[in-house]
Give the backbone structure.
Amino acid sequence: MAPLMFLIGGTLAGLVAGRSGVRRLRPWPVAVRGGLALMFTVTGLAHFVGMRDEMIDMVPPALPAPEFLVTATGVLELAGAAALLRGRTAPWAAGGLGLMMIGMFPANVHWALSRSDLPWEDQLVPRTLMQVVFVAAALSVPAQHLRAVRHRPAGTPTTA
């Protein structure tokens, strides 16, 4: 549930700042990028401190080197969070993070089905619904970028 709160809180903070005069944060896709960056910074750090052992346990037994996979996905989340903050790299980062979340979803399913002592938000249905929100938020960034590119006059820069 915490990642959802960071996504929502970060996005709302960006929207409020945009409405309060920070022009660069005014477009909603920029606010969503900020919320995603906050969420992925927090979850990326959790791959190294706090929840590392739990994340290693989440890796399905069929996959090799769970420690390496947790480290690699943590590094990718942190790099993706940083790339979300740059206009030129944000669509690629968001698309990559969205695909990575889809690829990591089997670990969430494995965890939810193999444990009976999980809190409500970590059970399969709520976790799946949150994952849909996360993926939709991530994929909204490249989708909006493509829409903007299609409607941009020729010669206009692509940064946002």
Q: What stands out?
A: Residues 2-150 form one domain. The first helix runs from residue 2 to 19. The two ends are 30 Å apart (CA to CA). The chain has six helices and no strands.
